[in-house]
Amino acid sequence: MRLPEETVVDSFLPTFRCMLARELASRGLRESRIAAMMGLSQAAISKYRRGTTRTEKAFMEDDATLKIVKKVADGLHHGKMSELQVLAIVMQLIRGQETRGLMCRLHEREFPMIAGTGCNICIAPRGGDVLEEENVLSNLRSALRLLESTKGLPSIIPNVGMNIAMAKKNAKDLKDVAAVPGRIYEVRGGVKVPAAPEFEASTHVAGLILVARRSNPKIFAGINIKFSEEIIAACTALRWKPLEVRGEYQGREAEIDGKMSKGKSHAQVVYHRGAFGIEPMVYIMGETAIDVVEKVRTLLSQLAA
């Protein structure tokens, strides 16, 4: 196991210090003065200048890092930047690189087990439950693998594509719901999932989940599939209590909220017949993303019977 902070300490920090020390030296400053500016010993500055300290080439060649090095060097050289300001600027650089950036890629290189998992530990909201978020993402990843192996799935993928989403326990807005960035499409008879799930990657499916949860707190996940009368009939046969709502976006959430709160909160399917420029759609809901995919597989079996 390797923590992302280790990548910062072992790779970024010595490289940034080396780059900054060399940049200040290029301006004719003595090592003693550079040491005082950077809060380091003169011996350390000497090592950075001579290149005897291990550095990371990726940071040395990174435009964002180079830009900040010059900015900090200018600020320190001309006395226009305090130590606190330097700290804030460097921390901002680090946070930016941890947001699907260079730091994230290097951490995945050094800890291959997390590569391709949609890891968002470094950018999780402060005070957020990182473990819960990882559980949601893990459930979604498992659901996607199950979805990819589902026979007959392309036959129910809408023209606009499919998405699957899952919310955290106390989800309040779209930031608390994870989904697939982009859409899932049929490709050569199979299914193409464009990327690993992330939080705040869906609007319509995620929004539906948030609305449905107001009346049915057991709902955490949902998926959209194409509409057909046969699909609605199959959902009815499976006793999923399909709930029809208007096709227009305007007022749809209020209608869903109203109908589900009036004794129909146990509906596991919401659908609409479309509107001008809006494709008809069916949404299947459940307690987890895996639960939702299992329902899709059950529906396909019902349609084939």
- Uncertain runs with pLDDT below 50, 5 residues or more? none
Radius of gyration: 26 Å
Mean of pLDDT: 89
Taking the alpha carbons of the first and last residues, their distance comes to 48 Å
Features:
2 domains; 7-stranded mixed beta sheet; single chain; 305 residues; two-stranded antiparallel ribbon; 11% strand; alpha+beta; L-fuculose-1-phosphate Aldolase
Structure description:
The chain folds into 2 domains: 4-114, no CATH class; 129-304, L-fuculose-1-phosphate Aldolase (3-Layer(aba) Sandwich), CATH 3.40.225.10. The protein is built from 12 helices and 9 strands. The chain is α+β, with helices and mostly antiparallel strands. The mean pLDDT is 89.
